[in-house]
Amino acid sequence: MERLPDLADLTHAEKDALIHLLWDWVTALRQEVVRLTAEVTRLQGEVAHLRGQMAKNSRNSSIPSSAEGLKKTKSMRKQGSRPPGGQPGHSGSTLKQVAQPDHVVDHPLPEVCDVCGESLTGQATTEIRQVFDLPPVTMEVTEHRIHALRCTCGKLHRSEFPPEVTAPVQYGPGVKAQAVYLTQHHMLPVARTANVLADLYGVPISTGTVQAMIGEASERLAPTVARIADAVAQADVAGADESGFRVAGKLNWLHTAVTDTLTWLGLHAKRGKAAFEDFGLLYRLKGTLVHDGWASYRELTCTHALCNAHHLRELTFVHEECGQAWAKRMIDLLVCAHHETVAAHGQPLTAQRIQAIRTHYEAILAEAAAANPAKPASGRRGRTAQSVPFNLYRRLRDHADDVLRFTTDPRVPFSNNLAEQAIRMPKVKHKIAGCFRTTEGALAFCTIRSYLATLQKQHFDLFQSLIQVFKGNTPQPNFSG
């Protein structure tokens, strides 16, 4: 290192030059410290963000549990809130003996005692055991014959086949209903469905025939599903959700709109406004729409309610991973308010209680605001990225009426679980198949699934209903719900 000269040997000009040199060094060092401090702050933010991403799971974010692989998930439900086994009021499904069995097999006693050889006389006691089993099922072929005869006057008389008998050889409504029931309700792949029908019933059916049956069911059900969409649009309260769906190798979106008794599913290449406009359903909705707060739903002119299941998961993340106590207090408030609305059995809470919940809610938000000041503008184009806790606080603040809508309107649910459940089974179908190979197949699935999910909510016998569909007598659900 170069040795500094003795100050006593320096001239006044040299001293001034040295001072300027030292000042330049100090200035450069200060600038470097500022730069490194900013870099450390940025890297600390990135580390915190990445740690937060790694810490997210199905319990504290919107990540589905299926994306967590074999990792054991932890439920948000408190232990003991629903103990194992049948719940109170559940009828159960234990086998019970019937008074009139289909077959009786008598097992008689021997005529003599195998010890002393004496004849067995007297009145014997009887013990009964019943075995429930399926009878052998085989293909049943019904032959239809028509006749023709010419009268002596010259007129030809000819009888007619039933309207549903259109080909020399065809499958009946039972086989068609079974194929559609297995593929569209129980989510079996088409090839496996064909194998099941062959193994269980001896039905030699091809995958192409199964696909044709699905297409026929979709065509027959389209008018009913259109009425389901109209009924949802007229509902006082509906829930909506959407999820990615791969069709023919491309990303599409599965949209759903539901009520307590109705389910509608639709497929579109777009996720937001374009899909809403093409479907038309949500733009006609004048009641309350429950959703997850996605911006496209905000553009709808209806009343809004936000899904609090999403909020509970995000608040759990802020409490457990970010160490902010206000989030736990907000969880407790929302859960307590939810329990109160459930206990009210559809009756509104009192005005005093609603105001007390709102006051407590705003007090917790004040704590959140103090713990999460907004980051100043960075000077770059676009909005400055804020922290996860700040973004959650801002949403809870800006849309407080929608968050607490369930406390002011007893018809509004606490969460959007109904809509999320409507998405769940189609995602199972999607996961089994990998993707839908054609748009036509995906659209048929949406139509049939809308019908079956609606009938399931209204406690119809799905298989028997499908048989009637193929007979031309489509059972109609209650559209007023």
UniProtKB/TrEMBL annotation:
**Span of domain Transposase IS66 zinc-finger binding:** 110-153
**What ranges does the record give for the region Disordered, renumbered to this chain?**
51-97
Q: Which Pfam family would be a valid example here?
A: DDE_Tnp_IS66
Q: Where is the composition biased (Polar residues)?
A: 55-65
Query: Which residue ranges does the record assign to the DUF6444 domain?
Result: 3-94
Annotated signal sequence is: none
Transposase IS66 central domain: from which residue to which, for each copy? 169-442
Q: What is this protein called?
A: IS66 family transposase
